[in-house]
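Q: Structure tokens for this one, please.
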Amino acid sequence: MSLARVQAMGLKGVEGYPVLVELDLANGLPNFATVGLPDHAVREARERVVAALRNSGYAVPNRRVTVNLSPARPRKQGSHYELPIALALLTASGQVAAGAWTRRWCVVGELSLDGRVQPVSGVLAMAARAKAVGFAAIMVPEANAEEARAAGIEALPVADLREAAELAGGAPPRPRALAAQAASPGVSAPDLSDVRGQFAAKRALELAAAGGHNLLFVGAPGTGKSMLARRLPGILPPLTDTEALEITLVQSAIGRATPGLVRERPFRAPHHGTSAAALIGGGPAARAGEVCLAHGGVLFLDELAEFPRPALEALRQPLEDRCVSVARARETVEYPSRFTLVAAANPCPCGWRGHPRKTCVCSPVDIGRYLARLSGPLIDRIDLQIETPAVAFGDWAAATSTGESSAIVRARVSAARERQRARWTESPAPLNAFVDAVVFRRGARVCPEALDALAAAERKTALSARALDRILRVARTIADVSEREEVGVSDVLEAASLRGLDRLRAGLKDPNLEAVA
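A: Here is the predicted structure, written as tokens:
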């Protein structure tokens, strides 16, 4: 036969879609053409496919070869089409028998020049889609086998092109030792007990971990803002299987594949010179940014006010929608970006505003211009805004820390998350900060007195509707940490007192808010 069809998979964002590789052999001048909107990597596949066939001992037909990737409209990107193209060429030339495998299996893999099959990105997403559309198995590089099996589909690992051809021809799979299931690693983050003083900040860190709330530390240099932020992963509970699968899918699709499932939450800390495209996503190929790499984990933005204004303003949409839509002329790609934002900033350009013993040299104009870099809409989306005072010498010099260890705090955080998981059963992300507003208001269980206290705070401080919602979510988390089923007045007042940046902008403590608290 001169025409062969092999099922493959494409990747758009973090979702796979079926691609039919059609290969036609025709008489005429030798040529190898690929159609179906391929990118440069797919066009270059012909060189690797031809070399891999020759070096694996197969004959390369001296004829006109046309490869069509159907459907034609989506742009085909990546090197994972090389193995299905090679198998289609072997089938069309009669070196591999066509059979039911061409309809029941889908094939992905990159070829090296000597015929070895190299791992590729996005195997988990493609395997999940292959199972959803009804394929019986997926042929993948050996290094991607565990990732494919995690999708619940039969994985056919191959080490080289010859093994793939033999498997397609009906040979039994080569025996392989099953990889041991990776155990959940111990928490390697620094311990929270290393932080001296800053009890209010550590309380806010615990609430952020328990409810997934965004958090901002504002204070002079050396007060422990970055130190606190880097200890957040240590108080987060281990990943559930569902979370591990979701994070692995995202990490794999954007090119950061690991053997098996990811077992540690992402912690991303981009430099403050990062552009909007690098932070949010973009570029000609509509690539994912840092907010997508942090999906399921923590995004730490140190020196928040030093980030470019366009990057910070672009951050507003993923903080609200928990996803990023990158639109380009040819296509629009959507990436999930459900993360906890932890940021740190100085109170003024010199950093010493409000310090008990150092004098701030900034003018009011300089301070206003500096704080104006953090726009109101952005700050409104940050649930917890904490001032970190200077650490007293006695706390710093103490022989032992009086603070709790990460393990103790992590136990409370895990218990609070279990309560939320039991409450928000209909939500895909059962955390107080992430559940839909309608679902949250229906199940938050707030006592009337707590709503009255929130109304009093709104009258005296002109809180926005979003700020009110976020205060209520933090109050629900406070109640969960304290093992209370109903949100009380003290929970609302504590949550309201943890939004302090407006007071910092005003340069004094807000007497109205203090009166409410």
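A few notes: The radius of gyration is 28 Å. The domain at 192-394+404-516 is CATH 3.40.50.300 (Rossmann fold).
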